[in-house]
Amino acid sequence: MKFASEFRDPVAARALLTAIAQKADQIGATRAKPVHIMEICGGHTHSIFRYGLDKLIHEGVDFIHGPGCPVCVLPMARVDECVEIAEQPGVIFTTFGDAMRVPGHRKSLMQAKSAGADIRMVYSPLDALELARRNPDRQVVFFGLGFETTTPSTALSIQQAAREGLTNFSVFCNHITVPEPIKALLDDPDMMLDGFIGPGHVSMVIGTHPYDFIARDYGKPLVVAGFEPTDLLQSVLMVLTQIAEGRAAVENQYARVVPEHGNPVSLAAIADVYERRPSFEWRGLGEIDASGLRIRAKYAAFDAEEKFGIGYAAASRNVPEIEGCACGSVMTGKMKPTQCLQFGKGCTPDMPLGALMVSSEGACAAYWQYAGARIAAE
Amino acid sequence: MCLGIPGRITAITDPGRLMAMAEVSGVRREVNVACIAGNHLDDLVGQWALIHVGFAMSLIDEDEAEKTLQALKDLGEAQETLEQMALGQEALQ
Question: Rounded to 5 degrees, what are φ and ψ at A92?
Fold first, then answer.
């Protein structure tokens, strides 16, 4: 990697890498006994690999790639339900492109589309709303997927559909939340995390206070970060500084975009439309209390689960993942992507076996895309 | 999916639905501005916002917009987002 040409501000990046090295030495972090820092957001994972930060940084800092890639934590059963809804007569099923290639037990959405189901990739739930307006004789379903960054978009779309009295628009809600899986990871006795890089755009919606319990109850530092390389390096330095000083606090490196209390309009829309499910299933992490959202009864007319009787509430809980797929271990930081027996063999971006190989935000796809030559050399 | 893309608000298109036209890397796309609307919708015209799946989520300054766009280009996300916008248009046909 040509350092100077890859970074827009190589001087700042070098200075940060030096400061990180000093701080890591100060706290005694080594390759054999590293500090484990989890970047929660898949966008951060992508950025770390794109710029090779995992290799440029002091060897005593080990990045653990967290569960913040929405399609990566999607159990196959949810994909199966999408396909089942899409195959209902008269349905136009709309989804973000990211979800199209996630494998299901029977088929992916891409395969279902090839087989004749009317499945359309859209950029926004607003596109699905417009489809509903233009096709009053069809049922338009939008696959509501993602964390708190995307949740306001479907909440506001449902509110708009209600104001217009649309009867042929619904959302298949599989929205999930960030703080709850972090708590589950911290409660796992095998987990050895020392600190967190917090998601930037999720925090733009929810603010920084939902993470307070991480510092208060678990004594771990968390720094909300932007996704430019110097943002990430500065955030790592802030985490290490807290560890060196024996502190644990929630800090905000990305204050230029993330307000302390989040975005009030988004939060109000989410609260109006959604309520928490008692628990929700995560790929690789299992059932996590209060980690998923469902549509409130007052908006039941826009709830695809209600409309079609298909979905989480109606599903069996014991649907196995594909044999040999180690996405769960990779996602919890117990295994690196390259330690999975299927990596690059039974599982590649063209023929993904596990969801972590599908999205550019998935750890396995990032390893494959940016670290292929490196891995071959190791 | 969570990164969003900077765009400049060029006009308010539907005040009732809080919709505006935004220019994103030379591509025009109608977006919802509920999350950044405040009291004076017209004040948004000319401002930069971080746009996420068709919703303007946060006002940003021009310098931040430029840096963010460059970072998105480096990650290949800018092109991907523009392709998704085009797919969204196609899906309506």
Answer: -105, 115
| CATH class of the B5-91 domain in this structure | mainly beta
Indicate the average pLDDT of chain A. Answer: 91
Distance from CA of B76 to the nearest CA of A (A): 9
- The DSSP line for A238-263 is HHHHHHHTT---EEETTTTT--TT--
Going through chain A in order, the beta strands assigned E by DSSP cover 35-41, 61-68, 91-95, 119-121, 139-146, 169-175, 195-198, 222-224, 250-252, 274-276, 279-282, 286-289, 293-295
Is B63 near chain A, with CB under 8 Å?
no
**What is the residue extent of each domain of chain B?**
5-91
The shortest CB-CB distance from B35 to any of A152, A201, A257 is to A152
* Lookup: tokens for A46: 């992508």
Q: A69 to chain B: nearest residue by CA?
A: B1
Contact A36, A194 (CB under 8 A): yes
Secondary structure letter of residue B17 according to DSSP: T
Pick the residue from chain A with its C-alpha nearest to B58: A257
Q: Report the C-alpha gap between B20 and A137 in whole angstroms.
A: 28
Q: How many CB atoms lie within 10 A of CB A213?
A: 16
Which residues does chain B have within 8 Å of residue A131's beta carbon, measured at their own beta carbons? 91-92
CATH code (residue A215) = 3.40.50.11750
Q: What is the ipTM of this complex?
A: 0.93
Is A142 within 8 Å of chain B by CB?
A: no
Q: Which of A127, A149, A228 sits opposite B91 (nearest CB)?
A: A127
Decide if A124 touches B, using CB distance below 8 A: yes
For the segment A309-351, what is each residue's pLDDT rounded down to a tens digit?
998 877 665 566 677 788 878 877 788 888 888 888 888 888 8
